[in-house]
Amino acid sequence: MIEGASATLESIDIQRLLRLLPHRYPFLLVDRIINVDGDNSAVGIKNVTMNEPHFMGHFPEQPVMPGVLIVEAMAQTAGAICLHNSKEDRPSLVYFMTIENAKFRKPVVPGDRMEIHVKKMKQRGTIWKFACEATVDGGKVAEAVISAMLSVEERD
Question: N- or C-end of the chain: fewer Cβ atoms within 10 A?
């Protein structure tokens, strides 16, 4: 790249996400992915709304997005960029393998716009490892290291 030039980063809209990931409402936890730099890094966007079913029980008087769903949003963001950049001829799935060093710093609540920053740490064959950080209004709300495996399987 020429010094001083900026790279054009890709975006993945909801229609492309629906083609990449098998998840559907209420389990699709990413609305859009921006700043996609190949399979190296990206930022997933999750608009947290009160009408999501988990808020009925977690917790009705003070709704908080469950940490496990924040981690799942991280995994979906990482998985989507792996599939988006896959050179495979056949449709593929990404399987969540590990969660390491998960930490939750602040609650995520309805009305928040959560940004899920994922950065590839390493890749070996069909296995990727990502450092992930979720933020709201620029403040860190959660972090984890996740690994996933690309599997070449037919999907409908």
Answer: C
